[in-house]
Specification:
Elements: E1 5-9, E2 12-16, H1 22-36, E3 42-44, E4 47-49, E5 60-63, H2 80-89, E6 94-97, H3 101-110, H4 116-139, H5 149-165
Parallel strand pairs: 5-6
Antiparallel strand pairs: 1-2, 3-4
Helix pairs in contact: 1-5, 2-5
Length: 167
């Protein structure tokens, strides 16, 4: 379907623009890694093999981003860069960065995304939300008062792409 995909929501279908296609962007980010890993891959019976016929095993990690705040989890404890470095240090060769369909629905229905601070307040309340938001800002100085949930997710994706390029 090119740069678009069909998203089913309840009884209706919504045709989303390329802007919302995380899986597509992830696939693009993986291209440099695939080239460095003797791509293309193929199968030989039950095994995945690289272009030289050597067995290849996907070893990956799931980085959830579909929680209440709808950004990559753990950013109140560490920076995106630190998390991605840890993933690389344990020799992972694939990262599944999930996202909340609800976030996409909010953006589509409301004509734009919400700022991180608002997302934390909505998800964690006005007592805990600001505290956790400040921890995220402390660990991730690239975020500011104008950063949205989608931008925070793209930040994770960009660091994953750099990890893949340097593997």
């Amino acid at each position: 379907m090119g740069a678009h995909f069909l998203y089913h929501r309840g009884a209706s279908s919504v045709f989303l623009d390329m802007y919302f296609v995380f899986p597509f962007l992830y696939a693009l980010a993986a291209i440099p890694a695939a080239l460095a890993l003797n791509a293309p891959f193929n199968t030989n019976k039950q095994f995945i093999v690289d272009s030289k016929g050597a067995n290849f095993t996907y070893v990956g990690v799931n980085w959830p981003g579909a929680g209440d705040v709808m950004i990559p989890e753990g950013l109140q404890y560490a920076s995106i860069e630190s998390i991605v470095s840890k993933i690389k240090s344990i020799k992972m060769n694939i990262v599944r960065l999930t996202f909340a369909i609800e976030m996409i629905d909010n953006i589509k229905d409301n004509g734009g995304d919400v700022k991180l601070q608002d997302a934390f307040n909505r998800a964690l309340g006005t007592t805990n939300g600001p505290k956790v938001y400040q921890q995220v800002l402390k660990n991730n100085p690239q975020f500011s008062a104008s950063t949205t949930r989608l931008q925070a997710s793209f930040g994770g994706l960009q660091h994953i792409a750099r990890l893949i390029e340097t593997s």
